[in-house]
């Protein structure tokens, strides 16, 4: 694959040059957490990540999905998507699907049972980051506002507001990164067992796609 890219003059970043499969997530915080989680739950994927046959790339926001997939197609990368199960993620995927850049088999979403919209953070055990939020941001999530049926970032905004704190894009990014780093440090304890079904499905999809590529190369 690397030789084909070189012949065609395709410039791929270092982490893509050897990749047989590229997992695309929305943000850098998602990349940090997802890398740790898939490496913990799958020896096959852990090997792929360590050897570079599988890589994880980011969108910088769901709205960039079609543009990103166009670039990756030019780089001859086989891609799989893991997106938030919210309006932005679903709309971005549908746009890419209509444009012929992805199909239903190419994507998994962070579906959290009981929530109409959900994010990757909705799958985590609150114990993994409860103390961190209290110590670093002086915000408690032991509140009915955090137990609503809204998606995680909206529930977090409600908690920050209740504690007399501003909530904006900068703070949202800082909180998400802090939570992702907590997940990466303890992946075995990070996922809520009641909500991890969609992540198990992601693992299976990625393993199957890697296996299919290897069989095709034999």
Describe the model:
With 218 residues, the protein is α/β, with parallel strands linked by helices. It has one domain. Helices cover 52% and strands 9% of the residues. The protein has helices at residues 2-8, 28-41, 43-51, 65-74, 87-98, 130-137, 152-162, 169-185, 187-190, 197-217; strands at 21-25, 54-58, 79-84, 107-110. It has a four-stranded parallel β-sheet, sandwiched between helices. The chain starts with a helix and ends with a helix.
Blueprint of the fold:
Elements: H1 2-8, E1 21-25, H2 28-41, H3 43-51, E2 54-58, H4 65-74, E3 79-84, H5 87-98, E4 107-110, H6 130-137, H7 152-162, H8 169-185, H9 187-190, H10 197-217
Parallel strand pairs: 1-2, 1-3, 3-4
| Low-confidence runs | 1-14
Radius of gyration: 18 Å
Termini separation: 14 Å
Task: Give me the number of helical elements.
Answer: 10
Mean pLDDT across residues: 88
H/E element order: HEHHEHEHEHHHHH
Give the proportion of residues in helices. Answer: 40-55%
Largest sheet: 4 strands, parallel
How would you sum up the global shape? globular
């Amino acid at each position: 694959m690397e030789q084909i890219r070189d012949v065609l003059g395709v410039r791929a970043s270092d982490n893509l040059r050897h990749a047989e499969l590229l997992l695309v997530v929305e943000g850098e915080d998602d990349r940090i957490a997802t890398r740790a989680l898939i490496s913990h739950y799958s020896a096959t994927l852990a090997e792929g990540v360590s050897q570079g046959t599988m890589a994880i790339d980011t969108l910088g926001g769901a709205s960039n999905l079609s543009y990103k997939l166009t670039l990756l197609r030019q780089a001859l990368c086989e891609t799989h998507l893991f997106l938030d199960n919210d309006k932005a993620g679903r709309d971005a995927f549908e746009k890419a699907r209509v444009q012929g850049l992805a199909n239903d088999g190419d994507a998994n979403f962070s579906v959290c049972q009981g929530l109409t919209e959900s994010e990757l953070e909705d799958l985590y055990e609150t114990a993994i980051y409860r103390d961190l939020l209290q110590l670093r941001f002086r915000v408690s999530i032991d509140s009915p506002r955090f137990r609503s049926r809204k998606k995680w970032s909206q529930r977090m905004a409600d908690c920050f507001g209740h504690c007399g704190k501003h909530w904006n894009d900068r703070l949202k990014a800082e909180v998400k990164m802090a939570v992702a780093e907590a997940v990466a440090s303890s992946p075995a304890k990070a996922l809520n067992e009641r909500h991890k079904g969609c992540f198990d499905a992601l693992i299976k999809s990625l393993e199957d796609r890697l296996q299919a590529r290897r069989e095709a190369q034999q």
